[in-house]
Predict the 3D structure of the following.
Amino acid sequence: MGKKVVVTGVPGVGKTTVINGAMERLAAEGVEYTAVNFGTFMFEVAKKENLAADRDEMRKLEKDVQKRLQQAAASGIAAMSGGDANVIIDTHSSVKTPAGGFLAGGLPEWVLRELMPDIVVLVETDPDQILMRRLGDASRTRDMEGHRAIAEHQEFNRAVSAAYAMYTGCTIKIVRNENFLLEQGIDDLVSVLR
Ligand code: AP5
């Protein structure tokens, strides 16, 4: 069986940047991974149903609508993740809803059981660095919140990941993606993917 690795982190922490760096490095060593972005799967359905004009609008949708989109994405991902391929799933442990509450279980329990990930990776860094990255990313409509709220979200994600480990027996790896130390974050991710 291939390795199944779930990579999570709050918006703008740099999940996609670290994943791309790690995949490039592993490809040079002859280790192939397919990266699947959960948000892209959700957005395809949201766009078709005229629910959201861009991926950042999905967080503003009613909780029940988000749950339905999650289910659609999860079915698609579960269907393509069986077998021998090594797969990275780029997603969220929890999403902050418009009312401020956390929507936990970014990966529904039935999907976790089907995927049975080997590892859940939490990409983290200092909240003020995340705030600056969100402010500097003109390509997206990022949530603006203070460093305390970002810290709280990172803490909540650790709790959700612990629940994933209880369900599946996967290990949890924390990868720090610090300013000026991207290569170190990539090294860290490569070490668990190899
Ligand atoms: P998605 O697109 O995955 O949302 P996201 O978390 O905002 O992810 P991004 O790819 O935009 O950010 P990132 O953390 O990967 O950072 P990046 O590498 O771009 O999903 C879209 C939406 O789908 C979500 O908002 C949610 O609504 C929904 N969704 C997804 N999964 C879900 C689930 N399971 N359940 C429910 N809803 C779900 O980097 C950000 C910036 O930082 C860049 O400018 C980059 O250059 C910079 N940067 C990165 N690393 C460094 C570094 N070391 N030093 C300095 N700058 C850095």
User: Anything to note?
Assistant: The radius of gyration is 16 Å. The pocket of BIS(adenosine)-5'-pentaphosphate is lined by residues 9, 11-17, 37-39, 42, 55-56, 58-59, 66, 70, 90-92, 95, 106-107, 133, 137, 140, 177, 179, 182 (CB under 6 Å). The chain has a mean pLDDT of 91. The longest strand covers residues 119-124.
